[in-house]
Amino acid sequence: MNHVLNEGEYRLENIAARRDDLVMISGCSGGGKSTLLEELSRRGFATCEEPGRQVVREQLFIDGDALPWTNLSLFVELTVSRSINFMTEASRRGGRTFFDRGIVDQIAGLEQAGHAVPPTYLRAVESLRYRRPVFLLPPWPEIYRNDAERRHDLTAAIEAFHHLENAYRRFGYDLVEVPRMDVRQRADFILSMLP
Q1: Of 56, 31, 3, nearest to 178 (Cα)?
Q2: Where in 58-195 does DSSP place strands (E)?
Q3: C-beta of residue 90 within 8 angstroms of C-beta of residue 129
């Protein structure tokens, strides 16, 4: 039987208490994050898909314009909201959850594009925190692929990766680079860093 979420259960205040269970995996687009999250899910951990990929998929399906290449501001608004929802749901559910990108990623993308970051996003990134450290997957040219949801090339992905590193550091996160190796070894590496 599915649990029906009561309005009173959707409490953002719970995120701070569960912060150590909210593990961020970020890094270069096309660096293997989705594959790594699939492996962690296979091992029984809760995972949250990348909000941006979900939004792009939805917008393409409904012929919407909240896409990073047509309306970046609206796209980021939706992905920030989705990230907050994922964090809230994970903190309510309990247990460790691994995330593929989050609020900091969206802010880094806005900044890289030269857009002003709304104060609400800055308040969100300061008050809704993930566990330290954040695990970063570096650029990996040999596995990089474009698809319907990832239209930029490897050079743009690498540039975005550097903006991302700087943004996470600026917002007070420690970074651990996940080595380029087999996905099972990558999962083992991350889990070995989490007591």
Answers
A1: 31
A2: 97-100, 134-137, 175-177
A3: no
Radius of gyration (Cα) for the chain, nearest Å? 16
Contacts of 130 (CB under 8 A, 6+ apart): 19, 22, 23, 24, 87, 99, 102, 173
CA pair distance 21, 15, nearest whole angstrom: 9
Amino acid occupying residue 1: M
Segment 27-31 shows an average pLDDT of: 78
Distance CA 98, CA 107 (A): 20
CA distance linking residue 73 with residue 13, whole number of Å: 27
- pLDDT tens-place string over residues 12-21: 888 888 999 9
Q: In which residue are the tokens 């959850």 written?
A: 97
Q: Which amino acid is at 94?
A: G
d(CA 85, CA 2): 18
> Please, what are the domains in the chain?
20-192 (3.40.50.300)
Strand partners, 46: 97
